[in-house]
Amino acid sequence: MSHITLKQLAAELNLSISTVSKALKDSYEINEKTIQRVKKLAKKYHYRPNKTALNLKNRQTKTIGVIIPNILNYFFAKVLLGIEQEANEKGYQIIICLSNNKYSKEAESLLLLSDGSVDGFILSIAKETQIQHRYNHFEDIIGQDYPMVMFDRVSDKINCDKVIINDYDAAYEATDFLLQHQRKKIALISTINDLNIGKSRIKGYIAALNNNKNYKNEPLIVEIHQKTAYTTVVNTLFKEHNDIDGIFATDNVSAITAMKIAKSNGYQIPKDISVIGFSNNKISRLSCPPLTVISQNALEMGKKAASLLIDRIATNSTPHFTTATIDAELIVREST
Amino acid sequence: MSHITLKQLAAELNLSISTVSKALKDSYEINEKTIQRVKKLAKKYHYRPNKTALNLKNRQTKTIGVIIPNILNYFFAKVLLGIEQEANEKGYQIIICLSNNKYSKEAESLLLLSDGSVDGFILSIAKETQIQHRYNHFEDIIGQDYPMVMFDRVSDKINCDKVIINDYDAAYEATDFLLQHQRKKIALISTINDLNIGKSRIKGYIAALNNNKNYKNEPLIVEIHQKTAYTTVVNTLFKEHNDIDGIFATDNVSAITAMKIAKSNGYQIPKDISVIGFSNNKISRLSCPPLTVISQNALEMGKKAASLLIDRIATNSTPHFTTATIDAELIVREST
DNA sequence: GTGAAAGCGCTAACAC
DNA sequence: GTGTTAGCGCTTTCAC
């Protein structure tokens, strides 16, 4: 990190700094021989323009701040992959902050990076933030004219570009798929009831049931609030409703836990009970049986978020914000 | 991003820039009343010192470049989590690049960030890089005096700080555990034979077998080279060796595939066959039966890597590099 | 064809 | 107690 500077090159060449700078850019002003001399020495010392100096001069960093609730979650990891690909292609770097679903960490990250460290933000709202409806930190950032794109977990309250999937439609489709397969009692298991996306999925589930004339049962919704509670909650569900023949879970840990318990209770999958999960991650492919899921197309979401942000950075004037919807997709495997 | 500057504050207050700067820092030189006036206005405009300007002035970025082979891999994601935690605590930000196990992307990332964008690097070598033994890009970076810490997939050829687990010992322990449970024919399945860590794990496996006087069989090592080949390779293994009663896999997809095939062939787990995987990830906890694994303590690795790097950045002189070994741990579940 | 100077936003040594 | 100046490394306008 003892980088050579224009100043040092200029001194060694007995030229001025500006001449060296121009020579390196093949300026028409500079004598061809000088250009060669300069380039030769620059090469020798592996000269590269200092990024920080350029950032200061250009008043931009070509860097995007990405704030993600949980990097161990396959969905978020894959969105990040998409963001990184698109950003790199457009010449941007990614600074990553992990909110761990905490409001405080999210707010702090936003604050730390809003000192000119980045040109804009891509984020998905932390669970705690969404539960507490504390959006002031987002408003602050937008108030400072930082471009911002929210994905997946977004909020109506915030005015910015967004990338989402249609959770309502996806849940509707999943539920309807179960109905098409003559399922008579379908339960929904959700760990994310506090989130807007969780609420949309419930609505889609209910709508699908209501729109089906042959379906006789009431919606049956089970909430899981603690990581430790999966097994007990699902056990209770099976105990109280031993005629369940379909499960739609808003996450795969729930779905797979349900399959395990169903199997241990003697159900055959998918003969006696069908199960659909959410997110096309590794567990869904490796579970037994492999799990039918709603795939959110996380890579596309990431790419779209990045391209929206970069466009916004380029033309920071436009007043109209867009909400892009990425198609979700039912991937049918052996659990249905 | 229309940040207010000292200059603007100074103009509005009819003071000089340096007075404003000092006032904001409670300098003893400045009149208390002036300090208050300055602070009030600064607060009003939410003044924050421009990070880029500070970086230029201080000749450091307080940013670490992290280059990771695959963010969808739970192990790497968790290491990243550890790096982020430690780095944030010490006031550093993380720029992330994903090499996708490609040499070209790894080299390019290193190049892009070595223009003063970061103060140092943390990375795990891309698979392709390790297969091709192309380490010139690392040497370049070190030659430029950039501090660098490698974790998990490291190379003897490169002189820098490292954080690893003892793959040999871990594999030895896993194999020995199977031997203690009277397993008579233990196979090793590896997807990472090209990697140094893969080779160490094989050595540990072989050593454990050799040191056990009662073990009669030869080491039985199966390599998987393509993502599509898991099922066929494992099927062949079972066909050729129907007396296998133990499997140690260097990754969990192999381990779980093996369990699936074993089950479908009528084996009971762990009665007829025991299986051990590598990495304490979600799949290992949710598989049926839950998989016994070697846990690499990824979070600790990340933290250690970050703290090593930050120490190195602080005192860039020291000539001696350390290799920290993080304890791996056998987590026993129901597959053994 | 080359160089001086200003400026990006900030800090700090040094005047006054 | 306040201001001037130089400098971090670079680009670019304007002189010569």
List the defining traits of the structure above.
homodimer, 336 residues, alpha/beta, Rossmann fold, 3 domains, DNA-binding
Can you tell me about this structure?
- The structure is a homodimer of 336-residue chains.
- The first copy, chain A, is α/β, with parallel strands linked by helices and 336 residues long.
- Chain A folds into 3 domains: 44 residues, no CATH class; 137 residues, Rossmann fold, CATH 3.40.50; 129 residues, Rossmann fold (3-Layer(aba) Sandwich).
- Helix content of chain A is 46%, strand content 16%.
- In chain A, strands 2-1-3-4-5-11 form a 6-stranded parallel beta sheet.
- The longest helix of chain A has 17 residues.
- The structure holds a DNA duplex (16 and 16 nucleotides).
CATH-derived architecture of the largest domain in chain A: 3-Layer(aba) Sandwich
Structural class of chain A comes to alpha/beta
Oligomer: homodimer
Number of helices of chain A: 14
Number of strands of chain A: 12
- Which strand order spans the largest sheet of chain A, edge to edge or round the barrel? 2-1-3-4-5-11
Please indicate the percent range of residues of chain A in DSSP E strands (runs of 2 or more): 15-25%
The level of helicity of chain A is: 40-55%
Tell me about the largest β-sheet of chain A: 6 strands, parallel
CATH-defined topology of the largest domain in chain A: Rossmann fold
Shape of chain A: elongated
Q: For the CA atoms, what is the radius of gyration of chain A?
A: 26 Å
Kindly report the average pLDDT value of chain A: 95
Uncertain regions spanning at least 5 consecutive residues of chain A: none
- Number of individual domains of chain A: 3
CATH superfamily label of the largest domain in chain A: Response regulator
Largest interface: A-B, 53 and 52 residues
The SSE order of chain A reads HHHHEHEHEHHEEHEHEHEHEHEHEE
Distance between the termini of chain A: 57 Å
CATH class category of the largest domain in chain A: Alpha Beta
